[in-house]
Amino acid sequence: MKIRHYYGFGNEAAKNMKSTKLDVNAWEFLRRNHTGAGDFSIEKTRKAWVQNCMRKSDYQRAAQIICHIIRQHNWESAVSLGVGKGILEYYLKKNIPTLDLKCTDFTPDSLALLTSVFTECDRFSTFDLLNGDYAELENEDVVIINRLSTEFSKRQWKEIFEKLYDSNIRNILYIPTEILDLRMIIAEKRNTLTNVLQGRKNIFCGWMYTRREFTSFFHGKSKENLYMVVHAYRLNNNAVFELKRK
Question: Cα separation of 223 and 118, whole Å?
């Protein structure tokens, strides 16, 4: 099962977002803008950025799980796709300073903003999950896909996992944005209605999926098990899926 996911932005942000859904231009605006953009903007100074990271206990817990997996397998390098604000990645480097970490995003301006505050990161590069060359990632010990699940349709996710498989990507850590359940469905409908009543613009931000839908991504379009779930580590109403290429 899946449902549409919306976010209500403040008037200042909404009037600068020309589309009713998130696109490249909208993301670039949200990363730069500090009025009405919610928690999407990247802080202007490293001090403010670190302070924001320190307030995100859910990312800290996810990073602890990921670091446990990394140490368990003696992995030395990792690439995080669609890094966003880099909060999870901050905690990865904090817990394992020797980890050779590469952070990617598909918006170059946003990546430039992050580069100025996330000084611990070893490597940055632009990467488009739909059209990128996944062969570039083959030598990384693990690929991390964190909180991007809403960004793509089921068909697109299956295509992405087939590209990962075809490029011989061996290990993936997949963390959904959230796992859809009845409580989340009610909350989503309530929030969408509240935004309308309070005059906030509802922007379509993608799809929310149930756990069953997530695991179907890993099969690819051919319905073969491209990646098997080695372990699913519980994370509040979410999970860290450790995937291995079959």
Answer: 39
